[in-house]
Structure prediction request, 136 residues.
Amino acid sequence: MKKFAFLLVTLLLAVNCSKLEVNEANILGEWTETYDDYPYYVEEGFLCWDFKYDGLVVIRVYDVFAGDHTNSTKYQITHNEKDGSSIISFPTSEYTMDVQSFVVTKLTKKEMEWQRLGTTFQAGTVGFDFKHFTRK
Prediction:
């Protein structure tokens, strides 16, 4: 019985320690948008998201057909007090009030997932409503 209790406590600690708190410090750095685990999604290139300290994210697009280019935008992380979720938001234009917002559904040291606010995961929305990132 003691071995079972020890194993259970060890397992719970391992699960709790692997998930990071969603805040700017844990998101900073370069993340690559990748969908290797989703065979129905075929990438024509890839995107690298580089989150900076000053609330800026630089997005480098490597596209086989359209060529490479770089964009940058501001980002903001907020926390929903009601359900404890963390939301990352990006303005779509500096001239309008339009914002794209995603719930951060997973964050570890090497992996992050987002789901567009107000949507649920479906196979056809990978890359648009659902985003998956890895970090080296």
The longest strand covers residues 99-107. Residues 2-18 form the longest helix (17 residues).
